[in-house]
Write a structure and sequence with these properties.
Layout (H helix, E strand, L loop, with lengths): L7 H14 L9 H16 L6 H86 L3 H66 L1
Length: about 210
């Protein structure tokens, strides 16, 4: 997990609070222990009676001084705890802000991925469009193509008309040749019949 980054003002406030609440306590000589020791010494001198009045006064002053120091120490400890609590809250707030920023960044990344995918699709479509456009530009225009088609249709119509005319002519020629062949056959049969009749007459004349 990434470290929380504090602002310069927040860092300065934390350092100042730590400096103000800092105190030095000798090892093994804690304020509460010292205060308890002074209190027991004071009670011991009070039991001795009037002859220990001066010592009692001295111990009383020391006890009050230690009590004041202990109270000050307690206040400083409380201030330290409060400062630590505020520092922890600040870290927690910064951590929450950082986590929220990370989540927002993740969402932004996912959104950018979708935008990139859409851009890739659009780019592919544009490339296909350019290919089709170049292919279309390489071919004749619709007007030129239509003119060529009309010319071909005209040629086909003329060829069809010519074919029909030739077919009609061939049909007439076929009929004419059929009639001619029929006439020739009739003439041939007539000639054959005439020749036979002439031959028969010649035979009869010879017999007579």
């Amino acid at each position: 997990m990434a470290a929380v980054k504090l602002t310069p003002a927040e860092e300065e406030a934390i350092i100042k609070q730590r400096y103000l609440t800092q105190m030095t306590v000798p090892k093994g000589n804690l304020p509460l222990k010292v205060l308890t020791k002074k209190f027991l010494q004071l009670l011991e001198q009070l039991d001795k009676g009037p002859e220990a009045e001066a010592e009692v006064a001295r111990l009383h002053r020391e006890f009050l001084r230690e009590a004041a120091q202990t109270e000050l120490h307690t206040k400083k400890l409380r201030a330290i705890c409060e400062a630590n609590t505020r520092e922890q809250e600040s870290y927690t707030r910064k951590q929450q802000e950082l986590e929220a920023a990370i989540e927002q960044t993740k969402r932004d990344i996912e959104e950018k991925k979708l935008e990139l995918q859409r851009a890739k699709v659009l780019l592919g479509q544009n490339q296909q469009y350019e290919v089709l456009r170049h292919q279309i530009m390489e071919h004749p225009s619709r007007e030129v193509t239509q003119q060529a088609i009309d010319a071909e249709l005209q040629l086909m119509a003329e060829a069809k008309s010519e074919g029909a005319r030739v077919a009609q002519l061939m049909e007439r020629r076929r009929k004419q040749f059929s009639l001619l062949f029929y006439v020739i056959e009739e003439l041939q049969r007539t000639a054959d019949t005439t020749a036979e009749e002439l031959a028969g007459r010649d035979g009869m004349e010879v017999d007579e």
